[in-house]
Fold this sequence. Notes:
Number of domains: 1
Largest sheet: none
Number of helices: 3
Radius of gyration: 11 Å
Amino acid sequence: MFPDRLSDLETSVVNAVGNTRRALKFACFAHRHGKSYATEEGIRQSRRGLRSSWRIVV
């Protein structure tokens, strides 16, 4: 389903924000746009920012 190189990022996202459909969508977004995060807190902050943007758009 996901490319092999996504698995590390996916694992990091799951550890940081949980194993939900939206978390996996965030992992796909981050992978597609070449994002990387040094810490779990960085993942959480980025996801919060993206989630806020999605609310504005939708």
